[in-house]
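Morning. Coffee machine broken again, so started the prediction first thing and wrote up yesterday's gels while waiting. Chain of 118 residues, entered below exactly as on the submission form.
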Amino acid sequence: MSYDFPDVPAALLEVIGETATLWLSSVDGTVNHIYSAGGSESGPLRFDRIVINTYAAGRDAARDESERVRELLLGAPHETTEGLLDHVDVEVVPHDILFQSDSVNQYQAIYRVHTRPS
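Came back before lunch.
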């Protein structure tokens, strides 16, 4: 049986808002870069492992934005035009990543986003 699952990274663009992107072209300002790192499914249930790299000017700004995104995601379920995101688990909490820049800092978090067919 074939199932049609939501495009989770695209759905998260809606949830996170204007700072989110799927294609990292610049780290000017505050940017949340979203990408999938695989996942698993069992019949009509699926989870996508989603990595979100947050870039901002200064460590505090990057941490605060990464924590803001975490709070948003944990407010699931999220109804989006891509479909329903049932539940979000934090797999790796937001943490500082060494980033070679004098003006930009990076934080990263990894989530499990649970979905079902639309």
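The chain has a mean pLDDT of 95. Going to sketch it on the whiteboard this afternoon.
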